[in-house]
Amino acid sequence: MTETACHHYPWLPVRWMLIDRYESIDHIGDVTCPLTIVHGTDDQLVPVRLSRNLFEAAPSRSAAGVERRFIELPGVGHNAMPREPIVEAARELIPGSEESNGDQEHAG
Hints:
With about 110 residues, the protein is an alpha+beta fold.
């Protein structure tokens, strides 16, 4: 969050102002589960370079040996993520999910 704030407000001392920093870069090295990062190239809120930096700092493989993945969506912004690439990435990570067509109702 700090890097995003610095990107948008370079004239402010945001590093001193933020209480909740959410410094993902400081914790990504401890991730042991399979990791997929999805980011749109036209994201005006969080620059794609920050996700690339996070990806590079992450372990290259999960504890189970699954290789990390970075999915860059050309021309996609922060909130307008197309469903299909995300669903496909999830199906690859979650065993047995390819058997579902995604039309099931949510459990209540």
